[in-house]
Predict the structure.
Amino acid sequence: MRLPEGVEWALHCTWLLTVARDRDALPARRLAEFYGLPEAYLAKLLKTLVRAGLLSATSGPRGGFRLARAPGDITVADVVEAVEVPSPLFHCTEIRQRGPVPLTGEACRRPCGIAQVMDRAERAWRQELAATTIADLVEASGSGAVTRVSSWLATLPRAS
Amino acid sequence: MRLPEGVEWALHCTWLLTVARDRDALPARRLAEFYGLPEAYLAKLLKTLVRAGLLSATSGPRGGFRLARAPGDITVADVVEAVEVPSPLFHCTEIRQRGPVPLTGEACRRPCGIAQVMDRAERAWRQELAATTIADLVEASGSGAVTRVSSWLATLPRAS
């Protein structure tokens, strides 16, 4: 069980768009270039983030992607769930209702203890992801990382 | 991203073997029958739990599977990790070391903030799974569930 690599890419791109939020929108081509990623796949992923309301997209020669919300209002969970549709990690198929002495549907209105533990663990996972915003990530990166990105941005023509 | 259905089966079978631990070993055929599961696949899964040290297996006419440890010494995490080899949910591919202004390996000795958040969330998930034992699950099932299993066990010949 593994998260798709798009989760890593989406989180890094959202981080980069936060650092770059005072300049023009950044096209997928530039984001792909910065991280050495395949542009076509990344462009699709960025559109997914637009549909999730995390980014906005503009077209035209100065078009590209920007944050659609303040970085303090975008959590890591928001990005993960935009890329990986939030279906439960554990699917209970109610095997206690099968076999020679099945429990009735009536008796199974509450999830079984196993499903409850799995659900509690998953909520703990999502809560941790929801506890950090993209603004927190940029702050934790330190000034070195931000300077590195800013220097690169400064080398780009304004409509790039 | 979804856990394999074998996780649900393995947890339920471990639960059943706990309830049945005062009688003979139970063969895969009986466990498959109780939950309406495919016997061949379940037998493979049970052997995985034997390799993980959670169950023991005996052969012969009275052979089958039993718990290898006390149910209070088997956590939900033990069973999940026996079925689903514990590789990280999130794989960091260090995309910060790519592109036109890459970070050096030297500068990346510590995981980036994104990998740290993902790792923290995963630890929270595993900690919740490790906080409940199979003995806890049986206790939480209540006497009704245990009586249901015991009644079924009583209908089986001793070497079944």
Q: What stands out?
A: The two ends of chain B are 38 Å apart (CA to CA). The longest strand of chain B covers residues 55-58. The mean pLDDT of chain B is 90.
